[in-house]
Amino acid sequence: MLVPFSNYPVNETFERMLAQELAARAGRPRKSLIARVLDILSGARRPAATSA
Predict the structure, then answer these.
(1) What does pTM read for this prediction?
(2) Closest Cα partner for 17 from 31, 2, 28, 30?
(3) What Cα–Cα distance (Å) separates residue 1 from each residue in 4, 14, 19?
(4) Domain limits, the chain
(5) 9, 11, 44, 52: which one has the fewest Cβ atoms less than 10 Å from its Cβ?
């Protein structure tokens, strides 16, 4: 766990958001670069990006 570098509310919020993002990333399966390249070469479609 990260040690807080200050007690300012903005920093505490940033640290909470960072911890949530790291937890979310830990739950996602990782796909290697080679697997992604092979998917592209084999014609697999990439997930559609959300447009704003």
Answers:
(1) 0.42
(2) 2
(3) 9, 14, 8
(4) 8-42
(5) 52
